[in-house]
Amino acid sequence: MTSSVRTVEAAPDQSTESQYNFAYLDEQTKRMIRRAILKGIAIPGYQVPFASREMPMPYGWGTGGVQVTAAILGQEDTLKVIDQGSDDTTNAVSIRSFFEKTAGVKTTTATADASIIQTRHRIPEASLREDQIIVFQVPIPEPLRFLEPRETETRTMHALKEYGLMHVKLYEDIARNGRIATTYAYPVEVNDRYVMDPSPTPKFDNPKIDEMAALQLYGAGREKRIYAIPPFTKVKSLDFDDHPFEVQKFERPCGLCGAANVYLDEVILDDKGGRMFVCSDTDYCEERREAGHLGDMAADPAAVSLTTSTAGQDAS
Amino acid sequence: MSDMMNDEPLLRVSEITKLYGNRIGCQNVDFELWPGEVLAVVGESGSGKSTLLNCLSTRLEPTSGMIEYRMRDGVFRNLYKLTEAERRLLMRTDWGFVHQNPADGLRLAVSAGANVGERLMAVGQRHYGQIRDTATDWLERVEIAADRIDDNPRAFSGGMRQRLQIARNLVTHPRLIFMDEPTGGLDVSVQARLLDMLRRLVADLGLAVIIVTHDLAVARLLSHRIVVMRHGNVIETGLTDQVLDDPREPYTQLLVSSILQV
User: Fold this and answer.
1) Chain A within 8 Å of B150 (Cβ-Cβ)?
2) How far is A244 from chain B (nearest CA, A)?
3) CA angle, corner A85, sides to A79 and A91, nearest 5?
4) CA A165 to chain centre
5) Please, what is the Cα angle at A222 between A218 and A225, to 5 degrees?
6) Inter-chain residue contact B111 with A240, CB threshold 8 Å
7) CA of B126: which chain A residue's CA is closest?
8) Selected residue with higher pLDDT from B244 and A4
9) What is the signed CA dihedral for B175, B180, A154, B109, rounded to 10 degrees?
10) Residue-wise pLDDT tens digits, B205-232
């Protein structure tokens, strides 16, 4: 995480890649991003504007997260990239190989081994440590966007802490569905001050960001905003007194590893209604299976094909 | 109602002038508004009515002059010396603004109930059941059936939207309401019903109202006092019945005599 100078670690046979500066971005750009990050940490939940750069991947693929990761990455770091909890989906694989090529850093799929975890829309099930940083890819950082389209107005509302409108959205949810039906990008209040969009993570993950030991950084490339939650910061999910916040509950544990109280993905097995529910966090599921935990469908032929064949088949 | 017994005005306007470059928006306007009083500002288009209303409601800073408002704690404050936070809080608690076009004052993307409840949530109410009960109550008071509470205002007629906008403004029990042509664009029978309802609400709640209109019938029906404007100046002011029955200025005479008789 220290400022690094030039790439010296790129493999000599990758002649084109060795012409990139360490972690793709030039040092001035990284400096600018680090300043935005520091400001973000100083004001938890506040969206800091930054001069987002074009990255060699399309908007929506995590250009914000990639820039944040590039700015904080050091040669000693170990990087893990997940997409919806999975290490082997397209987005995760391409970002991981991007940093392997341009920074030559070690990568891993094990949550515990990583010093930086870049994530798209999930937080690992294993709790994070103080020496880890989690970087979120954010599509739309403004939680009030769809309620108040004027950016000048939403900024004033943040500045004056006028957040009644956020509850209008929750009110609408209850009026239409009888409960708060927002399941992802569930708005939170950070440190009793700013209302923030925790990126489209399922609300199942909201309790994890409260008092989290790891530093959380959020980068939105297209919207040119960075925000952050320092370690051990109070994060409260918004709710009503008579409709308190609650996370999703699953009727059954994971079909492969038998884990309860984790976020599950549905996997369709055939066209006759066959399905199973498995951990969305693939690394967590693998570790549990190696430790000998087995779910009720682990012996099922379909499950065997999920766990033994090449990784990437269980992309949801 | 204790506020109506107060012997101090609610709003003190002195020497308000708004210039648009060399052109006059309104000039040297002076008046006081008392709790529970309805003041109509009438005049032809371009006479400076809306400029004056915008100045009073802190939406447009006047070039010179002073507007003081007696806050709920009894202290007079210069409106343009308030911080933005105080001003915005005032506008969504102690004041209301009824726009001519209800779409300007409503959130069309959310249900009627949420529209009424927004101000409550903005001042910190966090109990869904209570917010909904209050919203239902207010919808009934403005003659909208309670079962329309979850309907989108886009599904409402023009008259219903206007009544919804009024309910949305009144839910925090404001003391002062600004209205900009509230009956403009509505057909005559709907207008009559809306005026009737407004008159009842204003009397029940003891609201002070500043209503801008070019329709003298509206002024006659609702207001206690009237201000006639022309070319940005107040040319005549007095009790509504007095001014309309016995206009002194030639322009007011013209205005009164130009009402169509059916």
Assistant:
1) yes
2) 10
3) 65
4) 26
5) 40
6) no
7) A240
8) B244
9) 100
10) 999 999 999 889 899 999 999 999 999 9
pLDDT in the model for residue A308: 65
Give residues with Cβ within 8 angstroms of A302, minimum separation 6. Answer: A269, A270, A274, A276
- Chain B closest CA to A312's CA: distance in Å? 41
Report d(CA B218, CA B39) in Å as an integer: 11
Task: Say which DSSP state A86 is in.
Answer: B
Per-domain residue ranges of chain B: 106-173
Contact A168 B110 (CB under 8 A): yes
Question: Residues A250-298: pLDDT tens digits?
Answer: 999 999 999 999 999 998 888 998 889 999 999 999 999 999 998 888 8
Picking from A168, A173, A237 by the largest number of B CB atoms within 10 A of its own CB, the best residue to mutate is A168
CA–CA separation, A96 and B224 (whole Å): 74
| Token output for B1 | 């109602």
Could you report the per-residue pLDDT of B18-49, keeping only the tens digit for each? 999 999 999 999 999 999 999 999 998 889 99
ipTM of the complex: 0.87
Told to judge if A60 belongs to the known catalytic residues of this protein, a careful annotator would answer no
Give the pLDDT of residue B88: 93
Q: Which two tokens stand for residue A8?
A: 């010296």
Q: Which residues of A touch B90 (CB under 8 A)?
A: none
Contact residues, B window 66-125, toward A, CB-based 8 Å cutoff: 84-85, 88, 107, 109-111, 113-114, 117-119, 121-124
Q: Is the dihedral of CA B241, B245, B248, B252 positive or negative?
A: positive
Chain A neighbors of B132, CB-CB under 8 A: 175
8 Å CB contact between B134 and B127 = no
Mean pLDDT, chain A, whole residue set: 90
DSSP state, A88?
A: S
Task: Give, as one character, the DSSP assignment of residue B154.
Answer: G
Judge whether A86 and A315 are in contact, CB under 8 Å: yes
Nearest residue on chain B to A243, alpha-carbon basis: B128
| Cα–Cα distance, B35 to A8 (Å, whole number) | 78
Which tokens hold the place of A174? Answer: 């209850």
Confidence check: pLDDT of A300 > 90: no
Residues 218-257 of B with CB under 8 A from A: none
User: Chain A: residue nearest B120 by CA?
Assistant: A164
Task: Calculate the alpha carbon distances from A147 to A167, B131, B172, B234 in Å.
Answer: 10, 19, 21, 41
Q: Which helix (H) or strand (E) holds B92?
A: helix B84-93
- Which pLDDT tens digit goes with each residue over B83-131? 999 999 999 999 999 999 999 999 999 999 999 999 999 999 999 999 9
Q: For B137-168, what is each residue's pLDDT tens digit?
A: 999 999 999 999 999 999 999 999 999 999 99
**A16: pLDDT strictly greater than 50:** no
Instruction: Count other Cβ atoms within 10 Å, centred on residue A255.
Output: 25
How close B33 gets to chain A, by Cα (Å)? 30
Q: Is A257 part of the annotated catalytic residue set?
A: yes
**In Å, how far is B125's CA from the nearest CA of chain A?**
9
